[in-house]
Design a protein that fits this description.
Two copies of one chain form a homodimer. A four-stranded parallel β-sheet of chain A has the order 5-4-6-7, sandwiched between helices. A three-stranded antiparallel β-sheet of chain A has the order 1-3-2. In chain A, helix 10 (184-195) links the parallel strand 6 (173-177) and strand 7. The N and C termini of chain A lie far apart (53 Å). Chain A folds into two domains: 6-85, Winged helix-like DNA-binding domain superfamily/Winged helix DNA-binding domain (Arc Repressor Mutant, subunit A, Orthogonal Bundle), CATH 1.10.10.10; 107-212, 3-Layer(aba) Sandwich (Oxidized Rhodanese, domain 1). The first copy, chain A, has eleven helices and seven strands. The first copy, chain A, has helices at residues 6-21, 24-33, 40-47, 51-63, 83-99, 101-110, 122-130, 142-146, 161-166, 184-195, 207-212, and strands at 38-39, 67-72, 75-80, 134-138, 154-155, 173-177, 200-202. Chain A is an alpha/beta fold and 221 residues long. Chain A binds a DNA duplex (30 and 30 nucleotides) through residues 19, 23, 25, 39-41, 49-53, 55-57, 59-60, 71, 73-76. Chains A, B: It comes from Mesorhizobium dulcispinae.
Chain lengths: 221, 221
DNA sequence: CTGTCATTCAATCATTCCATTGAATGACGA
DNA sequence: TCGTCATTCAATGGAATGATTGAATGACAG
């Protein structure tokens, strides 16, 4: 593994980063870390994985400069190194969306009505919110909501959408968002609301992208 | 390997793309394909690798939707699927440049004078060329130059830089470019020219980025 | 100092990846 | 139709990766 020449040495380093992104579980970890910093244990719980496994994957991500670790008493809090990570994940996703037939197949079979659900863009949402025309719900778990959400959003975790909808005004359109562009929860929330007679749409992507776009973020009281 | 749920299925697909980028040789292949479409054999020759090896890596890239294959008589010509691939590689590179200490170390030890070599931006180059203030040289091999180059550039392959410099006007600044931001050839060309008394700088990146930026490209006659 | 708890390390096994070799395929030209 | 040549396939061995287990580390509380 001697360094042959600078170009190959550099490509080896770039490959380490790409390789670190090349595992489904690590991509899911990044999605969760994009909501906010987490301890190893908390992340493991979110993903339903053994702690040791998550720890090892976190170290792979750290070697690649994708996440940063910070000791906090007994805990070690991991967070994304910076927004460039989200950009990288998004661009990998873009390649897959354009060229991998399997992605299209999955989207069609699971999100059949996706085209019906014309997503709401961030700009559009801002206008709708300003004019008070829609109810915005954040369908992520409360802890993620607490770490930052779109101003004016109500936290309605996915499991409570049905109950919530009974107390909501059916004539008012609902916009739902969650962790990111392919986070399933907002798809399901919209589907549930529609089956209950609501008018509902998704935000085009999730909290991390909203934040990365420099838009205001509200923290829990 | 059954499909558990749509989210995991999607992440598996995204991981395939990232994994395909996670090998130094494949990254180098992408750099070459970014110069123009190539047959398997031609690419293998460029990289000094056995044809079968390159063929297998190309298939991994094709499965990931990164390259596209097209039969051309006896040959199969491979090309990048589209510009989104360059974006993805660039964003992976950006993560590495920001956060992988090793990248910094390599850059320092091999390109020590890098800071001295303030690169010329594309906009700056266009202004300089318009005013006729600099000589622009393309230090890639002639076949790559033929597939597209910056208008007004002279093809001076790296090996011929020294000879060429004797016939060139020493008082005129030279700008060199090659395959991309980390292509070694332009670094070396600039170093050689400076040691021969020329004033020389690099273009900030290479041909593929120039083209991707929508700037004009000139083909060989 | 000791116990507790979050995290990391070390070792194992199964799986996948990678390079190499030589044979098979597929298209062209004679 | 046959030979040639570019490419792909199949099989091999060696290396790296990933999940699991249990032990080791490191920091805090008492």
């Amino acid at each position: 593994m001697s360094i042959r020449n600078p170009k190959q040495a550099l490509y080896e380093q770039f490959a380490i980063v790409a390789k670190a992104l090349g595992h489904p579980l690590r991509l899911e970890m990044i999605e969760h870390l994009a909501q906010g910093a987490r301890s190893v244990e908390a992340l493991a719980a979110k993903l339903g994985q053994p702690v040791a496994n998550i720890s090892q994957h976190l170290q792979a991500l750290r070697r690649a400069g994708i996440v940063a670790a910070e000791r906090d008493g007994k805990f070690v809090r991991y967070a994304l190194a910076d927004e460039s990570v989200l950009t990288a994940v998004a661009s990998v996703r873009a390649v897959a969306e354009r060229h991998v037939a399997e992605v299209d197949r999955i989207v069609r079979s699971y999100f059949e009505t996706r085209d019906d659900m014309r997503p709401v863009s961030r700009n559009e949402l801002q206008a709708l919110m300003r004019d008070g025309l829609v109810t915005l719900i954040d369908v992520r778990p409360p802890d993620e909501f607490a770490l930052g959400h779109v101003p004016g959003a109500i936290n309605v975790p996915l499991g409570e959408v049905k109950a919530w909808s009974h107390s909501a005004d059916t004539s008012r359109e609902v916009v739902a968002y969650c962790r990111g562009p392919w986070c399933v929860m907002s798809f399901e929330a919209v589907a549930a609301l529609r089956s209950l007679g609501h008018s509902a749409r998704r935000l085009e992507d999730g909290m991390p992208e909203w934040k990365a776009a420099g838009l205001p973020v509200e923290m829990a009281a």
